């Protein structure tokens, strides 16, 4: 075991060069009273007038959770048209993300069936339709693959994901096809 020894002369020199604690910081004087902070109280309970931009806020319900399943990004919107899907694909291509198509022949959403332990859910992983479209530069290529997947699995959920290969993350994911018999 090694020990270190320090001379009393060096300890004394350290104490002489460092100023005392009392002169470095003011002592604690306690908490400030509430009288230093202005308090405003709103008399009426109308929440639509809380906006600070001078206008009145109109509350809008965007998604009814009963009887509807929430899927991925944009799931609160009505089904996307082919043109809207094409624009979303164009967006992810412009961001240099790699498009990939996945499908689920089961529920299409996260659920619990096989295990009720915390953190375990079924339906998290979907099956990949072919390999990701590396090098894809045209939304029409992705739309063609979507149509092929619809023909092969008409009673499945189909989604597009955009993968960022630099950050190694999935950046976007949205449903492009739901089964005809789906009620959600």
Search tags:
184 residues; alpha+beta; four-stranded antiparallel beta sheet; 4 strands; extended
What's the multimeric state?
Answer: single chain
Could you give the order of the helices and strands? HHHEEHEE
Count the E strands. 4
Structural class, judged by helices and strands? alpha+beta
Largest sheet: 4 strands, antiparallel
Strands of the largest sheet, in order across it?
2-1-3-4
| Helical percentage | 10-25%
The helix tally amounts to 4
Terminus-to-terminus distance: 71 Å
Shape: extended
Strand content: 5-15%
Mean pLDDT across all amino acids: 73
Query: Regions with pLDDT < 50 over 5+ consecutive residues?
Result: none
Radius of gyration: 30 Å
Describe the protein's topology:
Elements: H1 8-17, H2 21-24, H3 82-94, E1 98-104, E2 127-129, H4 139-152, E3 157-164, E4 169-177
Helix pairs in contact: 3-4
Describe the protein in words:
- With 184 residues, the chain is α+β, with helices and mostly antiparallel strands.
- Strand 3 and strand 4 (169-177) form a beta hairpin.
- It is extended.
- The chain contains 4 helices and 4 strands; from the N terminus they run αααββαββ.
- Helix 3 packs across helix 4 (139-152).
- Helix content is 22%, strand content 15%.
- It starts with 7 loop residues before the first helix and ends in a 7-residue tail after the last strand.
Quick summary:
With 184 residues, the protein is α+β, with helices and mostly antiparallel strands. 22% of the residues lie in helices and 15% in strands.
